[in-house]
Amino acid sequence: MKKGMTGSKYLLHLDQKEKVNVVRSLRVIRWRFRRIYAGVRFGEKTLEGSPVIFGNSFPKSGTHLLAQILSAFPKIGVAVDRGMGPVLTFERSTGRQRSSREVLADLNRLQPGDLAFGHVTAEPEIVEGWRHDQIIHFFMIRDPRDVVVSHAFYIGDKAIQNVHHTYYKSLPDLDSRLRTSILGRPDWEGDFPDIGKRFSAYLGWLDCPWVTILRFEDYVKDRDKAITQLVEFSEERGYHRIVGCQQAIEILTRAIDPSHSFTFRSGKVGDWQKHFTEEHKRMFKDVAGDLLIHLGYERDFTW
Description:
α6 (100-108) links the parallel β3 (87-88) and β4. The chain is α/β, with parallel strands linked by helices. The termini are far apart. It contains 16 helices and 6 strands. Helices cover 50% and strands 9% of the residues. The chain has one domain (45-295): Rossmann fold. Strands 1, 2, 3, 4, 5 and 6 form a 6-stranded parallel β-sheet that branches. The longest helix has 27 residues, at 16-42.
C-alpha cells in the first residue's frame, strides 16, 4: 500500500481477484482472533474438545434462516463463527461443479468449535471423507415446490453474480422463470438439470444416521419447539451450552431477522400454490413427483 493511501482507496486500485484475496485474508485474521478470544473465554481444552457445527441445505431451502440461528451459538455456548462465507459444491459465477477434493479441503479447514454453513452435495467421497464424531451436521430441507418459486424470484431479481441471472432477466415473465427452475436449462453448455436431478445429489444425506434432518416448515409453524430440538440435539453431540435452556431459545429466536438476509423474499409455507399453474404442476410431477413423496411432502401424485 502506498504511503498516505487509505484502505478503501487501496482496494479501489485492485482488480477483482486481488480484492477477493484481500477480503479473504482479513476474514482469516478475524476468524483467528475469534478463536483466540473463545480459547480465553472457555478454555483451550474445552474449545479443542468441541464439535464442528455445520448447517447444510439445498439452495433456497432456508439456508439463511439456519445460518442466522447458528450464528448465535457463540452467545449461548462454546462455538466460533468462522465467518468465511458458505462452503459450496459449485461456483456461483460460472456454474462449475467443484470436485469432491476441493469441497473436502474447505470442510477439513473447519477446526473444533467452528460453525459454518453451505450447500454441499452427498457425493460418496464427501460423505465418507467428512465423517467423524466431532461434527454436528444439520441438513435442512423444504418443500421443493416452494424452493422452485423462491429460486425463480431470487435468480431473476437479486442474484446478479449468479451465472443464470442474465438468462432469467431475459425471460418475459414469472411463468417462464418457474418453467426454467423446474425443468432446468438442458440446452445450456453447463450443468443445470431439472429440480429432481439437482436435488438428487443431496439425497444421500437423508440416509446418514449422523446427520440431523431439519424441515424449514417447522421453523415457520412452531419455531420454539424446532429451536429447542435443535439445541437438545447439539448438546447430545457434544455442544457445551453455558446459559439456561429458555434463555438460549430466546437468544436463538431473536437472531432470526429476515431484514438482514439479502436472499429473503417471503419465507412462507405453501407459497407455490399462489404461483403454480396446472402446467407447472404437470411439469413438476414429471420430473420431481417422486421426490415430494420421498421427502414426505405428498403421499401420491393427486395434489
